[in-house]
Amino acid sequence: MAGLGTVGGGLLKLIERQAELRLPGKLEVVAVSARNKNRNRGVDISKFRWADDPMELATAPDIDVIVELIGGSDGPAKRTVEAALRSGKSVVSANKALIAEHGIEIAALAEKHEAHLLFEAAVAGAIPIVRAVKNSLSGVIVSRVSGILNGTCNYILSEMLRTGAAYETVLAEAQRLGYAESDPFLDVSGGDAAHKVLILAAIAFGAQPAFDQVQVEGIDKIEAMDITLANKFDYRIKLVAEAFRANGSARCRVAPVLVSKEHPLAQVNGPLNAVVVEGEPVGRLTFTGPGAGSGPTAAAVMGDLARLFEGPATPPLGKPSRDLAPIITKADSATDQGSFFIGAKLADKPGMFAALTEELAEAGVSIDKLIQESAGDTGAAPVAIMTHPCPRAAVERALSRVAELKITADEPRLLRIETRA
Ligand SMILES: NC(=O)c1ccc[n+]([C@@H]2O[C@H](COP(=O)([O-])OP(=O)(O)OC[C@H]3O[C@@H](n4cnc5c(N)ncnc54)[C@H](OP(=O)(O)O)[C@@H]3O)[C@@H](O)[C@H]2O)c1
The domain at 129-291 falls in which architecture? Predict the structure, then answer.
């Protein structure tokens, strides 16, 4: 085991309860590695051989399997995984950054050495979605995979709705409760959800993972007023990660999106994750559950370890890596069509509301619904608009004029509205 932190510690505890699990054989921890040998991990590790450098485990002749729980797309995690695969050892990892950013080379290495490379825990924690898409649903022509894949963001957005508090306040509370890292950038920027949806897209569409082709937008610009006013329109704001087929290519994107209160993703609150798989001939399948945390993630790692008893390795991304197609491509957002939500605070000057609606009309954007609230003593009036279907580029054009004219007291938020039920 390389890495004995949140997930590694959880796995050690689960291995101690092996007799209660339903494994086809027995697992034995031979050696462990982390940075600090003396850190209390809540489990006695003195009975295991210690390695200061995880690379020692990757080549040790008495080890069959490396469990990589260090994290990071490069550095010791990548070196250890590559060395283990080169030695013909199986690898189980929870490392979404590594698989999303180097999946194709690492999968090819595993295939060459006929080694298992399993990473169920990398996507949606305890939800068994990697194996479901790769194996159980291999008889489905998948058209779309979407979901809530970052529990930190979902917790923050849910709490902003529940309490009406500002993003920064809720983020600080999430950090205090352990739902957010001390450096939350990868979560709130959408990068973590992008890693996960890209892995699902690669498997579901037989596509080469291409991280630079994922369109990513985080939740850090969302204001409490956006969430409150979206709620008045009967919508929730969720960080939606989705991958779908589009004209022979596949698109992956992560962004805060308005979903109607009836949508399956609207009901998923707090740190939970959810994944919706759509395809022929099954229609829609929805999976929900804890997407992170020591126990749930360790349980997913354990499921992969159990798989090792079942027989020879299969290609890590479903299809052999040489057959994966380079089809994940960014679409030009100018071609995006849809209905959009605009949230902003109007500057406290006469005629600002008329000026905003005039700019939208000028750009050919027609308003479906709108709410304007009193400025009270804040000096800026919250306004929310839902547009009829139109090109995104038209809304962007109107908003750049709005910025030039200094109509708003803040930078308006432009969010897509999911109109599919
Ligand atoms: N936490 C979750 O809920 C969750 C969920 C899904 C997937 N994951 C993934 O699981 C992996 C582990 O996450 P985590 O939350 O358990 O991380 P973590 O708590 O930060 O633990 C990382 C572990 O790696 C060790 N480590 C760091 N650099 C090392 C090095 N150079 N050599 C040897 N050991 C090193 C650390 O050692 P020390 O303990 O001595 O510092 C620590 O034990 C990541 O890929 C993460 O994305 C995590």
Answer: 2-Layer Sandwich (3.30)
Of 78, 134, 196, 319, which residue is the catalytic one? Answer: 196
For tokens 């020591």, the residue is 294
Domain ranges of the chain: 6-122, 129-291, 333-418
Segment 201-248, tens digit of pLDDT: 999 999 999 999 999 999 999 999 999 999 999 999 999 999 999 989
Question: 141 CA distance to ligand 1 centroid (A)?
Answer: 35
Q: How many Å lie between the centroid of ligand 1 and the Cα of residue 3?
A: 5
Cα 342 to ligand 1 centroid, rounded to whole Å: 39
Q: Is 196 known to be catalytic?
A: yes
SS3 391: strand
pLDDT in tens, 85-132: 999 999 999 999 999 999 999 999 999 999 999 999 999 999 999 999
Report residue 351 as tokens: 């005629």
For ligand 1, whether the C-beta of 54 sits within 6 Å is yes
- Name which of 279, 121, 264 is nearest 204 in CA terms: 279
- Whether 70 is in the pocket of ligand 1, judged by its Cβ within 6 Å, is yes
Q: Is the CB of residue 209 less than 8 Å from the CB of residue 104?
A: yes
Exposed e or buried b per residue across 252-274, where buried means at least 16 C-beta atoms within 10 angstroms of its C-beta: bbbbbbbbbeebbbbebbebbbb
pTM above 0.90, yes or no: yes
CB-count burial class (<10 Å; 0-12, 13-18, 19+) for 100: buried
What is the topology classification, in CATH, of domain 333-418?
Alpha-Beta Plaits (3.30.70)
User: Contact 10/294 with Cβ under 8 angstroms?
Assistant: yes
Identify the bridge partners of residue 278 per DSSP, sorted by sequence position.
144, 284
* Closest by CA position to 119, among listed 81, 83, 154: 81
User: Whole-angstrom Cα distance, residue 219 to residue 46?
Assistant: 43
The CATH classification number of 6-122 equals: 3.40.50.720
